[in-house]
Amino acid sequence: MPLVYEEAHLRRAARACMRRRSAPGADKATWAKWRDGAGAKITALSEALRAGTWSPAPLRPVLITNYFGKQFHVYVPTAADRVVHRAMRNAVEPLLEERAFRDWVSGYRPRRNRITALSHVMAHMEAGRRFVADIDVARASAGSTPEEVTGWLADYVTDGTFLALFRTVLSGPPEPIAPGTGLAPLLINLRLSRVDARLDGLAVVRFADNYCLLTDTPQAAERAYAQAAAALAAEGLAPNARKSRIRGHANPEDLFLLEG
In Å, how far are 27, 79, 89, 160, 245 from 31, measured between CA atoms? Predict the structure, then answer.
């Protein structure tokens, strides 16, 4: 908890938040407005978090239409709540990076993006694995409960006060991993890390919620697809039937695209 409530950590979190463009929350406070008197606001946040009296403000739902016409809701926190979310993420992310996340996972991670994932794929292909079980996870951020997600984190964190704060934050949106909060990207990787653990020993690369399992024969690719589908099912997830397939002699540049 000191990594969250100490003012130095809250100031670092605020600076990280202000480097990104974001819509205002339910209080309509922009970052320009929040920056005015930010020192006093950070002190007040620190005191409330330390005393256990902090509670999140209501989220503002925003309907988003993506490039492909799909509509979904994003739940926008207030500026102050974003600072708390970012401080929490800063506190726990190094631990998860060290203990939970596989080296073959990119996306929603520091300095690991699609290019990183493609470089891992190309290394497998150069070793002769040209057949790919390409699996996009259906509704990776949907479902679960605050208690369940907090339980996932409790595998790595023993600070009960931090876990109680974590659960409080997750209780705000309709679903705990709903997009919009400052913790949502980290939580997708936390959720899928449980699937990743079931795939150890396979030649696999994951970017965000897209798995590529690389093999040297089409029959092995079919078996890898079945194993990955079973690993997803064990965690209450499934492949997206429209986007998932077996690829023969795949071109790396065709992988990890927005619409598969």
Answer: 12, 7, 19, 31, 43
Q: Would you give the distance in Å from CA 75 to the centre of its chain? A: 15
Does the structure show a pLDDT above 80 at 201? yes
Nearest to 165 by CA among 84, 93, 94: 84
Q: What average pLDDT score do residues 99-128 get? A: 95
Distance between CA 185 and CA 107 in Å, rounded?
A: 9
Going from the C-alpha of 241 to that of each of 132, 196, 208, 225, the distances in angstroms are: 16, 20, 17, 12
What mean pLDDT comes out for the span 56-72? 84
Give the pair of three-digit tokens for residue 127: 């070793």
Its pTM stands at: 0.91
DSSP-assigned beta bridge partners for residue 72: 64
What's the whole-number mean pLDDT along residues 221-250? 96
Distance CA 76, CA 82 (A): 9
